[in-house]
């Protein structure tokens, strides 16, 4: 189960409202490379990881990503909370206001709503972990785009923190990927006495669990 | 002008980074400011430098100490998921957690509970009264 801690992973105090930035930041909340997609993807994939290392890593990174969802929510909320209706119209958030007023709603920066299609699970551990590595790289790139779009140090600071987390997670996933790949190669050697083309062969899926 | 003109990290190196046997770590405060406990994994973006958050109140400063220790322990947690046999890292994680628990106790006595687990000695239900993380801590 999950329990709540009444603290952010990293402190956020944004003093200046900035509706345009709120409009961009929402993509890391509800976009395809966003934190909500990452959290739910990892917490979903963890069940079919082939060993305890994989289950633990996906569980613990997925849980951290939920904390990042909260950070994004906090940033968007603080950037928007003092805005007047006039400012909301000016920033092009009038369409958001029509449906949600000042409440948060997970979409990407173009207003496309969050969808479970972002989960991208195949059940093949190597494919899933490479999906996760790519997700971390894409999120890092988006954070860099977002940093480029602002000059407010109160916003840049947590964005740099979140960007760096993508780099750490990428490296952890990569380590896990290489560890599984090595296991796969060991398995190849064991069954290498038939005529299969070993360079084009994945001895995986249902049998993968038996390797551990 | 496109962003690539400023990209100063080395893609190849970034993708080849392995965790060395001999690890060098930042201390918890340096780590949370950078978002990274592991010196070898740290990568800057352009010429942005990590900055310590501006903490305006005693409460925010106390909470930041807790956040720093939580962060360092969490980083070790992710590392230990893949290297559960590493005793020295396990000891370090335990140290950070013990220190954090002491700070949490002090903090909660003064400012109210951080979790519902820790409300055992409350005389009033402060969970509904103290500040939520997305709000401003009273100056």
Folded structure, characterized:
The complex is a heterodimer of chains A (212) and B (139). With 212 residues, chain A is an all-alpha fold. Chain A has one domain: Up-down Bundle (Ferritin). In chain A, helix 1 runs antiparallel to helix 4 and helix 7 runs antiparallel to helix 8. Chain A starts with 18 loop residues before the first helix and ends in a 22-residue tail after the last helix. The relative contact order of chain A is 0.16. About 3% of the residues of chain A have low confidence. Chain B is an all-alpha fold. In chain B, 45% of the residues lie in helices and 0% in strands. Chain B has a domain of 89 residues. The termini of chain B are far apart. Chain B contains four helices and no strands. The longest helix of chain B is centred in the middle third of the chain and has 25 residues. Chains A and B meet through helix 4, helix 7 and helix 8 of A and helix 3 of B.
Summary keywords:
heterodimer, A: 212 residues, mainly alpha, Ferritin, elongated, B: 139 residues, 4 helices, disordered N terminus
Write the layout of secondary structure elements.
The complex is a heterodimer of chains A (212) and B (139).
Chain A: H1 19-25, H2 27-30, H3 35-45, H4 52-80, H5 85-90, H6 94-100, H7 125-148, H8 153-190
Chain B: H1 11-16, H2 28-34, H3 58-82, H4 87-111
Helix pairs in contact in B: 2-3, 3-4
- The total tally of domains of chain A equals 1
- The Rg value of chain A, from CA coordinates, equals 20 Å
Using the alpha-carbon principal axes, give the shape of chain B: flat
Shape of chain A: elongated
What's the order of the H and E elements of chain A?
HHHHHHHH
Q: Overall mean pLDDT score of chain B?
A: 82
**Terminal CA distance of chain B:** 42 Å
Q: What is the N-to-C succession of helices and strands of chain B? A: HHHH
Give the N-terminus to C-terminus distance of chain A in angstroms: 27 Å
């Amino acid at each position: 189960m999950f329990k709540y801690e009444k603290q952010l992973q990293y402190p956020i105090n944004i003093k200046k409202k900035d509706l345009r930035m709120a409009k961009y930041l929402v993509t890391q909340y509800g976009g395809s490379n966003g934190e909500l997609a990452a959290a739910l993807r990892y917490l979903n994939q963890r069940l079919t990881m082939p060993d305890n290392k994989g289950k633990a890593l996906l569980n613990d990174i997925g849980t951290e990503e939920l904390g990042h969802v909260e950070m994004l929510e906090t940033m968007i909320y603080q950037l928007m909370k003092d805005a007047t209706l006039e400012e909301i119209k000016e920033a092009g958030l009038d369409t958001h206001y029509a449906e949600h007023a000042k409440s948060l709603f997970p979409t990407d920066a173009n207003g496309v709503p969050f969808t479970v299609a972002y989960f991208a699970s195949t059940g093949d551990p190597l494919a899933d972990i490479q999906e996760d590595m790519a997700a971390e790289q894409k999120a890092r790139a988006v954070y860099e785009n977002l940093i480029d779009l602002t000059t407010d140090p109160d916003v840049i600071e947590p964005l740099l923190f979140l960007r760096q987390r993508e780099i750490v997670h990428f490296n952890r996933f990569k380590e896990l990927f290489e560890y599984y790949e090595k296991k796969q190669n060991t398995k190849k050697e064991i069954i290498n006495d038939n005529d299969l083309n070993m360079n084009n062969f994945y001895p995986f899926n249902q049998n993968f669990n038996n390797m551990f | 002008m496109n962003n690539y003109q400023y990209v100063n990290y080395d893609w190849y190196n970034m993708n080849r980074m392995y965790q060395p046997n001999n690890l060098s770590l930042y201390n918890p405060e340096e780590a949370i400011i950078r978002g990274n406990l592991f010196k070898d994994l740290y990568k800057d973006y352009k010429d942005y430098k990590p900055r310590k958050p501006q903490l305006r109140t005693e409460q925010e400063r106390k909470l930041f100490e807790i956040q720093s220790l939580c962060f360092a322990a969490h980083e070790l947690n992710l590392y230990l998921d893949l290297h559960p046999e590493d005793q020295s890292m396990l000891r370090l994680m335990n140290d950070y957690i013990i220190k954090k628990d002491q700070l949490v106790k002090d903090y909660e006595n003064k400012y109210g509970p951080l979790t519902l687990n820790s409300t055992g000695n409350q005389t009033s239900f402060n969970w509904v009264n103290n500040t939520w993380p997305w709000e401003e801590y009273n100056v």
